[in-house]
Amino acid sequence: MKSTLLQLLLLLVLVCAGCSQTGKKIDSVKPLFVDGFTHTPGQNPALVPGISGSWDDRALESGQCFRDGDTYYWYYHAYSEAGPDAGYQIGVATASSPVGPWTKYYSNPILETNENNDWENQYVACPFVIKKENTYYMWYNSADKEWNGYICLATAEHPLGPWRKYDNNPIIDHPKFYFVGGVVHMDDMYYLYTTPPNEVQLDYGRMYLATSSYPEGPWQLYEEPVLKEGVKGSYDEGGFSEAEVSHYNGLFHMFYGGSTFSELREKTRESICYAYSKDGFHFTKYEGNPVVPSQDIPNCSAMAEVHFIIEYPKVYLYHTLRYLETPDGENKEWMPWIEHLGIQILEATGKKE
Asked: How distant, in Å, are the alpha carbons of 201, 241, 269 from that of 264?
């Protein structure tokens, strides 16, 4: 009897030890920069408008940077000298390194507006791509002539396309679900993160989430934001532009452009910030924010539409670059809507994951 009790006691100790080890493993999941980081600016600007007369000869805004094999694909949306009212279209540039040099695809734009579709006869923008088996899925934002926004889907057999728009677009029609920031596919679930314009101030809003078991939906829309603007006077009191979320090492990671508040868009300062979450619904802002203050980048007023690739210990940040003063050689009449693309590099200084 004593022997049996000793065996049961030993078994209980072993089980408890296993529980303790399991708990320790869960607790070891940490944000990317718990031990600090260094920041190095990439080549800024990394991509600039095309020659006069091209489809992207005025302004570029960042979409996702997507790695497939040994090639990096930086998707972006742009407009021409005809102005923002002429509508954004989607293009892509490629590189063999996460920092470039970048070559624009000769067959840009890869996704265009369609006058026959009233949900996208104004523009298409904010591309985000995921590969599932042999198919590439692109979620993107569109708008009609009244600037009502929608979320749509396209598919391709290669990152460069040709891209085929989903027959039942738009897949989401709701005012809070507008600019596509990013999509995470995990455990047979798609997490789509989006930001509406003009919710907190001009062109800036809060971060919202929709989930689905399929790329095309149906989507469960959560109307409570997963990330809200900061208190008055904080670095992100003015809300966010669209921002990517990715899942890595047991956590959801978000890099976003956190803005100050201003009645004039050209006076808004937007810095790169970081937040993380265990479940994808509740995010904690990094205590060391902003991780890249706008004042650290010469002549920078905003780093918007932030996307990223984690190649730990480095994180490559891809963003729209807006200026305080019109760069040399640019048409000053277009200020403040002269926009190029930029890259920032963060490197964790702690132990490699």
From this structure: 9, 16, 11
pTM over 0.85: yes
- Name the band, by pLDDT with cuts 50, 70 and 90, for residue 266: low
Q: Could you tell me which residues are beta bridge partners of residue 348?
A: 37
Give 117-137 pLDDT, tens digit per residue: 999 999 999 999 999 999 999
Asked if the model's pLDDT at residue 93 lies above 70, the reply is yes
Note if the bond before 327 is cis, omega within 30 degrees.
Answer: no
**Is the domain covering 37-348 a CATH 3.90.1570.10 domain?**
no
Identity of the amino acid at 38: T
φ, ψ for residue 321, nearest 5 deg: -115, 115
Give the domain ranges of the chain: 37-348
* CA–CA dist 46, 305 (Å, integer): 15
CA of 268: how far to CAs of 49, 53, 199, 254, 264, in Å?
Answer: 23, 30, 15, 21, 7
Q: CB atoms < 10 A from the CB of 270, how many?
A: 29
Beta bridge pairs of residue 255: 244, 274
Nearest to 192 by CA among 161, 170, 214: 214
Q: In Å, what is the CA distance from 41 to each residue of 136, 272, 297, 343?
A: 31, 12, 8, 7
Task: Provide the pLDDT for residue 162.
Answer: 98
> Cβ-count burial of 3 within 10 angstroms (0-12 exposed, 13-18 middle, 19+ buried)?
exposed
Question: Of all helices (H) and strands (E), which one includes residue 180?
Answer: strand 179-186
Transcribe 25-40 into DSSP letters. HHHT---TTTT-EEEE
